[in-house]
Amino acid sequence: MSVPVRKIIHVDMDAFYASVEIRDNPALRGKPVIVGGMPGTRGVVCTCSYEARKYGVHSAMSANKAYELCPCGIFIHPRREAYTQVSKQIRRIFQDYTDLIEPLSLDEAYLDVTVNKKSIPYASRIAREIRTRIFRETGGLTASAGVSYNKFLAKTASDYHKPDGMTVILPRQADAFLGRLPIGKFYGIGKVTEKFFISMGIRNGSDLRKVSRKDLVQYFGKTGDFYYDIARGIDLREVCPHRE
């Protein structure tokens, strides 16, 4: 008896904190907004608008470095209560479709819509509806979405056409998609690991598949098993609705 293919959506808000600030203060639109610590302190960047990212600013960067790269940036203290309120609003939208929701943070979550409350047969249609409703009901905030048959591929897909995009990876498309995907675009592979892989001549998923499980485990320990599986589109993790 074959196991039914799951339908997983990963929804990720675009520059969430910065987008909420811009929504609440339209004068900030089109400007390099940086939410987090202030220059001259030991604070860090929580997130920033896409205009600020053009200067090289990114989350977890020190506020001083962000100011060095983007002196014209508008630095704003985080308003966690405001972001939490919007996050709850988005969660209510998710709950109209499924109770199998696994939040990763205030601004992203996995949804299992294999069986959903609206009996919609296509996960891609649900993802489009959710993105449309988020935009309409939150006053113009945008979300990117990835749709696939497991969590790893859904997460990878949501990052593929950011911001305000959606990517669908069907089972028959996974091998080709992963084969050409740059190694640094694989979810779970950071900058340090990316450099190590490139030094080994591994530049994309096709190259990664040529490395044996034994060798990957030798290099990376248990994480090597994860790398071996994701290169083949294998991820058996379930969406866990009890995760805080």
Structure description:
This protein is an alpha/beta fold and 244 residues long. It is built from 11 helices and 8 strands. The strands form 2 sheets. It has a 5-stranded mixed β-sheet. It has a 3-stranded mixed β-sheet with strand order 3-2-4. A hairpin with an 8-residue loop joins strand 2 (33-36) and strand 3 (45-48). Helix 4 (80-95) runs antiparallel to helix 5 (123-137). The longest helix is centred in the middle third of the chain and has 16 residues, at 80-95. The radius of gyration is 19 Å and the shape is globular. The two termini are 34 Å apart.
Count of helix runs: 11
Going across the biggest sheet, name each strand in turn.
5-6-1-7-8
Mean pLDDT: 95
The oligomerization state is: single chain
Low-confidence stretches: none
Using brief descriptors, characterize the structure shown.
244 residues, alpha/beta, five-stranded mixed sheet, three-stranded mixed sheet, globular
Kindly summarize this structure in a few lines:
With 244 residues, the chain is an alpha/beta fold. It has helices at residues 16-24, 50-53, 63-69, 80-95, 123-137, 151-160, 174-180, 191-199, 205-209, 213-220, 223-230, and strands at 8-13, 33-36, 45-48, 74-76, 101-105, 108-112, 143-148, 166-168. The protein has eleven helices and eight strands.
